[in-house]
Amino acid sequence: MPSTLSRRGFLSRSAAVGAGTAVAASGLASGSTELTQTTGVDALIDDAATRALADHDAGGLTVAVVNGDEVHTSGYGHAFRSEDVPVRADETLFRVGSVSKVATWTAAMQVVDRGQITLDAPVDDHLETVDLPDTYDEPITLEHLATHTPGFEVRGRGDSAREPEYIRPLAESVSTDVPARVRPPGELHQYTNYAAALTGQLIADISGQRFGSFVTDNVFAPLGMSNSTFQPAPPDLVPAEGTAVEDVVSFYSDVSPASGLHTTGTDMARLLQAHLHGGVVDGERILSERAVASMHQQWFTPHERVDGMAFGLFERSRGDTRLVRHGGSVPQFATEFALIPEEDVGLFVVAHGNEASGAKQEVVDALLDQFAPVDSSGAQRMPDGMPERADELEGRYRSVNTTDTVSAEKLVYGLLTGQPVDVRIADDGRLVTEQGDRTDEWVEVEPLVFEHVEEDSTLLFRETDGEVTHLLNGLSAYEQIGYHEQLSVQGWLTVAASVIALTGLVGWPAARGWRRYRGGESPPQSVTRARWVAGAGLAGLLLFVLSFVGVIVAVASMDRPTLFNRPPAWFEVVFVVPTLGVIATAGAVAYVARAWLRDDWSLVTRVHYSAVVGATSVLYWLLQYWNLLWVRMG
Prior knowledge:
Transmembrane segments: 491-511, 532-557, 569-591, 603-623
Largest sheet: 8 strands, antiparallel, barrel
Radius of gyration: 29 Å
Structural class: alpha+beta
Low-confidence stretches: 1-38
Keywords: Membrane, Transmembrane, Transmembrane helix
Oligomer: single chain
Protein name: CubicO group peptidase, beta-lactamase class C family
Mean pLDDT: 90
CATH class of the largest domain: Alpha Beta
Strand order of the largest sheet: 16-17-18-19-20-21-22-23
Domain Beta-lactamase-related: 46-361
Number of helices: 19
Strand content: 15-25%
Distance between the termini: 50 Å
């Protein structure tokens, strides 16, 4: 089905391939040269998209490419969970995940463009519905939010819901679980959904409109993005007859400015054009040319050698070509939005299916190889001696998403997301990093700055008060951790401590029962009292585990949001149990000290009691390390 997207109108295209049938249409070209170029781009898209769907378990995808005044839009496969409905670029909805932020940051720049806020103004002065913690003297600004440098911990709780009925108003979502500020603003990049969600509420508070209404009136409507919406469950997402969105979707964004956009390939082509053509599409201006240029310039980087952040967009270098881009994903969808401002080129790709990410990336790679090719035949870099401060660099580094989280979510990030980075120095002076199955080698080019031996990427080490504390792989930050903080070490500690603790929890009552049965001599009264106190500490651990599992089962059976996404207010009561257990264990430690100082009890009794209390203390230390004592849920 043809559509008119070109500013000069000489070419547009929409294609859909589904159920074994190809449907394609193209407009007229003004001149054979343009037609040949256009056909080449269309053929490239067709080949890459068809191959991607064949190579991956993906049901459908849509592509939009803007190349100067040319616009190419096409669709392949079938709509989401609708095998009999082919993808059409101008009408088939896709979920774009974090690419929603592109629309949000565009709207934020509109507010700046109109003089309603400056980039360096404290956002707290303009927020009416959210009170940010006054942890640091330095205020958080819109620039910090757009570069993900406000210093917030990562917060996953409250980002999503499993049913659309659980979606809250944005003001409630961003003010209910305000993340802690863990560092001064502007110091370190840490990507969070909360920064974009808070920006959405900032737009609402400044404009006096709901966020979704503002974006519709000021971005979507002027650009002709008639199918784009921040509704949580638009019916057209699943156009199959007799199938409702709620029947097949179990993830809904509760922070719509960060991840709640539904859109089409044709609509996103309009947004690409706005960014590439100075804020104007078909005579409709949404941003001044200066504002667009400001969005695309670099606003933050940890080092001049490292790709940084534009205004809400990530920089990416491919050889000598600079891109500004954003990716996105939610369950079953993967998206890419990329601009090459100097070449007046932009692309948008989104796919759905079990392997949506692989399908999307195959198309993106093919397009970037065409519009931003790189020379991959470069010689390897060689080290010139050992790195400075080599001994300080070696060790294990864990993502700051885990190390800097002060809520109970630390355990979730530590166990389920990201892999640590192990750093060692090879005999020839190369720095070697191992993360999961990937091994990379780096050469020091200046103190604490390393370049990859083959690829165009940079690794940095950050020091605090003269001590190396962080590794930065591009913008991704990792904090150096001690041996005792490694998951494998803590796992063995947990097993060993649990076994020793159980010898007291089970062994003491069993021994007492055996003495009663055989009529043996009872231990001194002080031993009995000490064991009761230590047993209370152990009982706190056991009751905590049982109550935690019980709450998970109970909440799962309720008609309400999940425990992780939105724990009930009474959930914090669960953590009173281990807190009381710590108090009891502190009393048991006092008994240990007294027994050894006074030479009470037999040596065997003292050693065993000390081992049990020590093991219990280790288990409580592990709970404290993962923020499960005196827990902060909000």
